Amino acid sequence: MEHRQLGVILCAFIGLVACNPIQNETGLYAPSVDHSAQSVDPLIVGHRLMDANQPELALQNYHRAAASHGLTSEILLAIGTANLELGRLNQAFDAMSRATEQDPTWPEAWNNLGVVLMEQGKTAEAVQVFRKAFALANGKNDAIRDNLRLALENLENPVYDNVQNDNYNVIRRGDADYLISSFP
To answer: In terms of Cα–Cα distance, which of 105, 81, 110, 106 is closest to 95?
Structure first.
């Protein structure tokens, strides 16, 4: 009988401990969740994750943003940018092409499409896209001008050696702007 009573008391004690909130080593309780609070826009979260060099997580948030806002040109460009960072050039091309179709006057979208074309080795097409982006920006965007200059240099001096083709790096500038720079 004593063992049975001890078991009941032990079960009751464990039940009481389980019902009480657990404190951390400082004696503070974990904060409760405010279910009435407004959530952060997944597009903003995606941009922050891209800034933190987490393109896979950013892509997941961009898809959440698409589910809540629809596939706007901004979200398509963000999806394309994340795919570009992940090396998924065909997916990046598709998303950025759709972004330029939805907003044909957005120079940054055309610039990023040009970057994808450069990465795919389609230099002549990239030059035309960079020219369009440069014209849409009225020649006032340094990153687009630099991309156009590098693409023109590559077009005039084509390099057939794969080792030298790998000398280009895509560098993130801002939320949706990319610059191709060559290593020394």
So the answer is: 81
Q: How many helices (H) and strands (E) does the chain have?
A: 9, 2
Beta 177-182 vs 168-173: how paired, if at all? Answer: antiparallel
Q: Do residues 158 and 118 touch, judged by C-beta distance below 8 A?
A: no
Beta bridge mates, 169:
181
- DSSP 3-state of 179: strand
Q: Is 173 exposed, middle or buried (0-12, 13-18, 19+ CB in 10 A)?
A: middle
Helix axes 73-85, 55-69, angle to 10 degrees: 160
CB 73, CB 108: distance < 8 Å: no
CATH topology of domain 41-182: 1.25.40
- Residue 129: enclosing H or E segment and its boundaries? helix 123-136
Query: 47-80: per-residue pLDDT in tens?
Result: 999 999 999 999 999 999 999 999 999 999 999 9
Residue-wise pLDDT tens digits, 4-38? 666 666 555 555 555 555 555 666 666 677 777 78
Q: Domain limits of the chain?
A: 41-182
User: b/e string for 9-43 if b means 16 or more Cβ within 10 A?
Assistant: eeeeeeeeeeeeeeeeeeeeeeeeeeeeeeeeebb
